[in-house]
Write a structure and sequence with these properties.
This protein is α/β, with parallel strands linked by helices. It is built from 13 helices and nine strands. Helix content is 46%, strand content 13%. The strands form two sheets. It has a five-stranded parallel β-sheet with strand order 7-6-5-8-9.
């Protein structure tokens, strides 16, 4: 079946079929191979894109910029102080202005409704670099990384530990459901994904041959796991009450060596980064001073251990983002 994604937005993977998702993963693998072998693939000369960042990021910005340059494109970066989106200018007006000047728009920020509104009015492809609800570019990187290390995607047991209510838990559950993985969210019940999204994922899993499990039992979750994945529990700027509540509730769901004792022999550790696995960050130091935890969502032993593929995963953000831009612009 021929796949043509030209002119499409990339807002959430609920908008894409399993075949389209795998097409993007395959395209990313091909582009990665070309880059590694020094084969030029700058086929988008003359194209211009704009990156709107209401939330800053190391990996997302560097991935979009490097991928765009590799493809021959020009890039404008708008940080939180440079954009008037939703402040002095409506989202609709901003989208219509930028759509006249650029061939594609990336947005990283807050509510999913913002990136959806940009897409409605821009008239050019809009790509979601992260919203509160979804993180679709990370999903492609995760699936490429998983396939590189395990040799397959369908049928893999994929365990997500920690706060599964927001963009990472939501997106991983949807992606696994669509591609036939056995997804497990392991956390306190108050931190499970929303029921409406769980219902959607379970319907998709029936079609794909996957499954969706929600559990608070770490041993049950990790038994036979092929992937154990986590994300940060706290972010800079959140009030201390939030930190205390999350750390107290999520402490049993830290990824440590015990989790991997239950897992399969081939199990890998994944994390979208940044990670608080030591005292090398200001947040890590603050949490240690207030709560006595020198490692938060993952131990340093796991993060730095032989099962960890987090830096392969980080690199693959660039290759998969390149695939999204190439597929939707060329």
């Amino acid at each position: 079946m021929s796949i043509n994604l030209k002119g499409r937005n990339f807002l959430k993977l609920m908008d894409y079929t399993p075949e389209e998702i795998l097409y993007l993963v395959d395209l990313a693998a091909d582009l990665k191979d070309k880059k590694k072998r020094g084969i030029a693939h700058d086929t988008l000369h003359g194209k211009n894109i704009v990156l709107i960042f209401e939330k800053t990021s190391t990996r997302t910005r560097c991935s979009f910029e490097t991928a765009a340059y590799d493809l021959g494109m020009n890039v404008t970066y708008l940080d939180p102080s440079c954009s008037q989106i939703g402040k002095k200018e409506s989202i609709a007006d901003t989208a219509r202005v930028l759509g006249r000047m650029y061939d594609g728009i990336e947005y990283r920020g807050y509510g999913q409704e913002i990136v959806e509104a940009l897409a409605k009015y821009a008239g050019v492809p809009v790509w979601n670099g992260l919203t509160n609800e979804f993180h679709p570019t990370q999903m492609l990187a995760d699936m490429l990384t998983l396939r590189e290390h395990l040799g397959e995607i369908k049928g893999v047991k994929f365990v997500y530990m920690g706060d599964a209510r927001y963009n990472m838990g939501n997106s991983l559950m949807i992606t696994c459901a669509k591609l036939g993985l056995d997804f497990v969210a392991c956390t306190d019940p108050s931190y499970f994904p929303g029921q409406e999204l769980v219902d959607y994922a379970r319907k998709e899993a029936v079609r794909s041959g996957g499954s969706i499990t929600l559990t608070s039992d770490v041993q049950e979750a990790c038994s036979g796991a092929d992937v154990i994945y986590t994300d940060v529990w706290v972010s800079m700027g959140e009030p201390e009450e939030v930190w205390a509540e999350r750390i107290n509730v999520l402490r049993p769901y830290q990824v440590n060596e015990k989790c991997f004792e239950y897992a399969s022999d081939r199990a890998i550790f994944m994390h979208c980064l940044p990670a608080f696995h030591d005292l090398g960050t200001s947040i890590g130091k603050q949490v240690y001073e207030k709560f006595g935890m020198s490692e938060i969502e993952v131990t340093d032993e796991v993060f730095e251990g032989p099962r960890s593929v987090v830096f392969d995963e980080a690199e693959n953000r660039m290759h998969t983002i390149k695939a999204v831009m190439k597929a939707t612009l060329e």
